[in-house]
From TrEMBL:
Keywords: Oxidoreductase. InterPro entries: Aminoacid_DH-like_N_sf, Glu/Leu/Phe/Val/Trp_DH, Glu/Leu/Phe/Val/Trp_DH_C, Glu/Leu/Phe/Val/Trp_DH_dimer, Glu/Leu/Phe/Val_DH_AS, Glu_DH, Glu_Leu_Phe_Val_DH, NAD(P)-bd_dom_sf. Homohexamer. SUPFAM superfamilies: Aminoacid dehydrogenase-like, N-terminal domain, NAD(P)-binding Rossmann-fold domains. Residues 205-446 form the Glutamate/phenylalanine/leucine/valine/L-tryptophan dehydrogenase C-terminal domain. This is Glutamate dehydrogenase. It catalyses: L-glutamate + NADP(+) + H2O = 2-oxoglutarate + NH4(+) + NADPH + H(+). Catalyzes the reversible oxidative deamination of glutamate to alpha-ketoglutarate and ammonia. It comes from Marinobacter qingdaonensis.
Length: 448
């Protein structure tokens, strides 16, 4: 980097240019930490200032979302859509409705999405969006009015060949349906490829709910196999009980592992003999209950803990599948002390940088989220493909395609790390492989 600005100086410049956005700073730092050997090999990337261009979103949209609650009071929320990079295809990324959403969080998620989407090998760029709206405790009518107001502004910036939102925290099939309904009403077009995560009867993809969780386990299986290890018989701890966590547990058990603990925002349950995943699904997905209800309904010897960390539970494999930065350095050390073999991120950057460094120092296999949880967006891209062709794939075929994508993602990360004498370093492999995909496309288009 002698001819040009050092990566550390560039990182500091990006931080100063984007103040008060710690989550975004974290995402940028994590990627830039991997790029020095790549930039040394490709001076053309430096000459074209590709890092500076990738770190600056193509478009940032902030808008007010006024809506009327059930008491007739006007409420105001703030909406966001960050269209980060379209070098490989239309912007693609979810919408998150949660009080914690702000521009820095959306940029953090959107930046990560660029490289995650690139790793799938599918023609999709990176973006993210959402609102600081909390759907918890809201009536169906309030959620409908909010979604309609949100889409009344967002519709002018999206389209099947422009920007294709999906769901995320707080945005499920109900919200996607309401958003699409408003888009259809305003535009007078049945353009169901404009959103993904839809219900099956109007253009949704079979396997979409399962895709992120299943995909993370497929990546885990490939990662273990590449290091002459097997998933069968291993004890697995999974944080969270949302779609990602539940279907990761389901697939892990199907492949012969034993899930010994899972959690929600109140606490966690632990059964050394293995949890009944179907009961967890019944409580959390069907009844919308709390995980504390599990022990009294199970036939095993499950215990519920309302305090402490789920990462204190001894396991062979840890899968953080809840939210960003949920697993810190102390948690990592607890897992290491308990001889954890592998950690795979099901959520978006759930491990802090300090935790990731601890796993690296301890030689623990680590699958970063931009690679391991790419199954969800891969299936969303397949949903776009089905919508464009007016097709509907079977569940089995969809899952076969998902498994193939995850196999190829793993191979790309593994081979790239090996190429740079970083064998087994999946953080480096994912960052370098994803970056090169985007950078090469940007070079082909010139300075735009």
């Amino acid at each position: 980097m002698s001819k040009h600005q050092s990566l550390d100086a560039l990182r500091q410049q990006i931080i100063e240019r984007n103040p008060n956005e710690p989550e975004f700073h974290q995402a940028v730092t994590e990627v830039l930490n991997s790029l020095e050997p790549v930039m040394a090999d490709h001076p053309e990337y430096q000459d074209a200032k590709l890092i500076e261009r990738i770190c600056e979103p193509e478009r940032q949209i902030l808008f007010r979302v006024p809506w009327v609650d059930d008491q007739g009071e006007v409420q105001i929320n703030r909406g966001f859509r960050v269209e980060f990079n379209s070098a490989l295809g239309p912007f693609k990324g979810g919408l998150r409705f949660h009080p914690s959403v702000n521009l820095g969080v959306v940029k953090f998620l959107g930046f990560e999405q660029i490289f995650k989407n690139a790793l799938t090998g599918l023609p999709i760029g990176g973006g993210k969006g959402g609102a600081d709206f909390d759907p918890k405790g809201k009536s169906d009518g309030e959620i409908m009015r909010f979604c309609q107001s949100f889409m009344t502004e967002l519709y002018r910036y999206i389209g099947a060949d422009t920007d294709v939102p999906a769901g995320d925290i707080g945005v499920g099939q109900r919200e996607i349906g309401l958003l699409f309904g408003q888009y259809k009403r305003i535009t007078n077009r049945y353009e169901n490829g404009v959103v993904t995560g839809k219900q099956l009867q109007w253009g949704g993809a079979r396997g979409r709910q399962e895709a992120t969780g299943y995909g993370a386990v497929y990546f885990l299986q490939e990662m273990l196999g590449a290091h002459r290890k097997k998933l069968k018989g291993k004890k697995v701890v999974v944080s969270g009980t949302g779609n990602v966590a539940v279907f990761a547990m389901e697939k892990a058990v199907e492949l012969g592992a034993k899930v010994v603990a899972c959690s929600d925002s109140d606490g966690y349950v632990h059964d050394a003999n293995g949890l009944d995943v179907e009961l967890v699904k019944q409580i959390k997905q069907v009844e919308k209950g709390r995980i504390r209800d599990y022990p009294k309904r199970s036939k095993g010897k499950a215990e519920y803990q309302s305090d402490g960390s789920i990462w204190q539970v001894a396991c062979d494999v840890a899968m953080p599948c809840a939210t960003q930065n949920e697993l810190g350095e102390d948690d990592a050390q607890a897992l290491i002390d308990n001889k954890v073999m592998a950690v795979v991120e099901g959520a978006n950057m759930p491990c802090t940088p300090e935790a990731i460094q601890a796993f690296s120092d301890a030689k623990v296999l680590f699958g970063p989220g931009k690679a391991a949880n790419a199954g969800g967006v891969a299936m969303s891209a397949m949903e776009m493909q089905q919508n464009a062709a007016r097709e509907s794939w079977s569940f089995d075929y969809s899952i076969e395609q998902l498994q193939q994508v995850m196999r190829e993602i793993h191979q790309s990360c593994f081979d790239t790390a090996k190429q740079y004498d970083r064998k087994g370093d999946y953080v480096f492999g994912a960052n370098a492989a994803g970056f090169r995909q985007v950078a090469d496309a940007m070079l082909a288009f010139g300075v735009i």
